[in-house]
Design goal:
By secondary structure, the chain is mainly beta. 8% of the residues lie in helices and 40% in strands. It folds into two domains: 103 residues, Sandwich (Immunoglobulin-like), CATH 2.60.40; 126 residues, Distorted Sandwich (Glucose Permease (Domain IIA)).
Length: 289
């Protein structure tokens, strides 16, 4: 009798050990699968790459290239750029629209879209749930960009001539209408402002080989004289960008030593226009070029 009474007691003990206890949290036991918690902040869009090139841009020049990659759970995020002053004030906002997450994105923005000053370009984004952009430790949300309307017309060493080579200096029967810039022969001459090449010619007793450029979006015409024979790569009617090569510093025509004779005209060149002293503009462009 005592032996038969042990069997039910053993089964009861085994059942007590192998049957999961009912938890007070709604029925989930110790052996049930539990969903892992996501790391804090992982739900936000993450910036993993961001660049702005070139770091120095010119109106009527090459476009500013913005590259970035944003990772997110959603397929698309809405992206924008904030153009900030060096002090942090928001000057302008540029929408880049919906962009595919997880992929490298490339956007070309005309330099004229940016204000002419030192800038901090900051990228921002929102996912469909309205969550804002975060970043990895190695990637900054901001990039520096310097934007100017003009650049210096000589891409290399030069100097400013003395009084005899300045605007208004006396000449036989006339006055000097530009500024002379001595430089080594062959030094590149570039467009200080993008625009349209209006005239290319040669004058043996005066300007030598010269180019006349009408500035884009402004009432200015620029003239470049005494260029090296065969150095002019552009043609009349061609549109050029700021910084594009127009020729090389030379000594052709009536010239005494290699130099660039540079003129600025308000309005047209001769027809309906008038020359102005280019020296203040040249010194300003020189300060940032």
């Amino acid at each position: 009798m005592a032996r038969r009474s042990l069997i039910p007691l053993t089964l009861v003990a085994l059942m007590a050990v192998t049957t999961p206890a009912t938890a007070s949290n709604g029925g989930v036991g110790a052996d049930d699968p539990v969903e892992k918690k996501r790391p804090r902040g992982s739900a936000k869009p993450r910036l993993t790459a961001f660049s702005v090139e070139p770091g120095r841009a010119f109106h009527a020049g090459r476009a500013v290239r913005v590259r970035f990659r944003i990772k997110d759970r959603s397929r698309h995020v809405r992206v924008h750029l904030e153009l900030r002053s060096s002090g942090g004030r928001v000057l302008r906002r540029i929408s880049l629209g919906q962009r595919r997450s997880g992929r490298r994105q490339r956007v070309a923005i005309p330099a004229a879209s940016f204000p002419q000053r030192d800038l901090r370009v900051q990228i921002g984004a929102r996912d469909p749930a309205g969550r804002g952009l975060t970043r990895t430790r190695r990637v900054s949300k901001q990039r520096r960009l310097v934007v100017r309307a003009h650049r210096f017309p000589i891409d290399g060493p030069f100097s400013y001539s003395g009084p005899d080579g300045r605007f208004g200096a006396a000449r036989p029967g006339r006055t000097h209408q530009g500024q002379d810039l001595p430089a080594p022969e062959g030094t590149p001459v570039v467009a200080p402002r993008g625009g349209t090449v209006q005239h290319i010619a040669y004058q043996a007793e005066g300007a030598g080989h010269y180019v006349v450029l009408r500035g884009a979006g402004e009432d200015r015409t620029y003239v470049f004289m005494h260029l090296v024979t065969g150095s002019i790569p552009v043609r009349e009617g061609q549109r050029v960008r700021t910084g594009e090569r127009l020729g090389s510093v030379g000594n052709t025509g009536r010239s005494f030593g290699a130099h660039l004779h540079f003129e600025i005209w308000v309005g047209g060149w001769y027809a309906g226009g008038r020359p102005i002293d280019p020296l203040p503009s040249l010194k300003r462009w020189d300060s940032w070029s």
